[in-house]
Amino acid sequence: DVKVTQSSRYLVKRTGEKVFLECVQDMDHENMFWYRQDPGLGLRLIYFSYDVKMKEKGDIPEGYSVSREKKERFSLILESASTNQTSMYLCASSILKGQGTEAFFGQGTRLTVV
Amino acid sequence: AQTVTQSQPEMSVQEAETVTLSCTYDTSENNYYLFWYKQPPSRQMILVIRQEAYKQQNATENRFSVNFQKAAKSFSLKISDSQLGDTAMYFCAFMNAGKSTFGDGTTLTVKP
Hints:
Chain A has strands at about 5, 10-15, 20-25, 30-40, 40-50, 55, 65-70, 75-80, 85-95, 105, 110-114. Chain A is mostly beta strands. In chain A, strands 2, 4, 5, 6, 9, 10 and 11 form a 7-stranded mixed sheet that branches. A 4-stranded antiparallel sheet of chain A has the order 1-3-8-7, with no helix packed on it. The model of chain A has no long low-confidence stretch (mean pLDDT about 95). Chain B is mainly beta. Helices cover about 0% and strands about 55% of the residues of chain B. Chain B has strands spanning about 5, 10-15, 20, 25, 35-40, 45-50, 60, 65-70, 75-80, 90-95, 100, 105-110. In chain B, strands 2, 5, 6, 10, 11 and 12 form a 6-stranded mixed sheet that branches. In chain B, strands 3-9-8-7 form a 4-stranded antiparallel sheet, with no helix packed on it. The mean pLDDT of chain B is about 95.
């Protein structure tokens, strides 16, 4: 089974802190994604990556950056956390081959910025 | 840009009954894929069912089936013989060029 693991289930950070959310997948997937999930807004794509060292902006990249130094790991970085970044963050991965491959999700990281 | 609309924020159904969740989407693409994902309370999101836009036949997976109307850009999910374990948030998703757009989700509660 594909496993997508996010490093933390819950995080509490202070305003202005630099925050790292880590995601690791074990199935050699090319594609990796970071979403945030907010009530009534569904999942919104922050950043995605099709390959090592490649990244593309999603729909809401402002205030975030990402790093993909190894194929299995995709990190989301909040350079200076703000209260409006309090949210559930979901990491996902999928195979590049074809378009119709499903996304496999991590368990989510609930981030609270105080 | 693609948009996905789920018009029912919340729904409930009695155990063993049938329920249909609605999803519409907007795209100018001709080749794409559609998905329904399930997110149980405090658990990971998992795939329920997938539909290729070029296939006319509606996808089915055990108790789950879709009604795919390409011209109307509609993709509803039917759950038959609902079970308590079906209680979850359900997301409709549109995928093109490897990237997915999700709807806002429908929270389904199955009542005993």
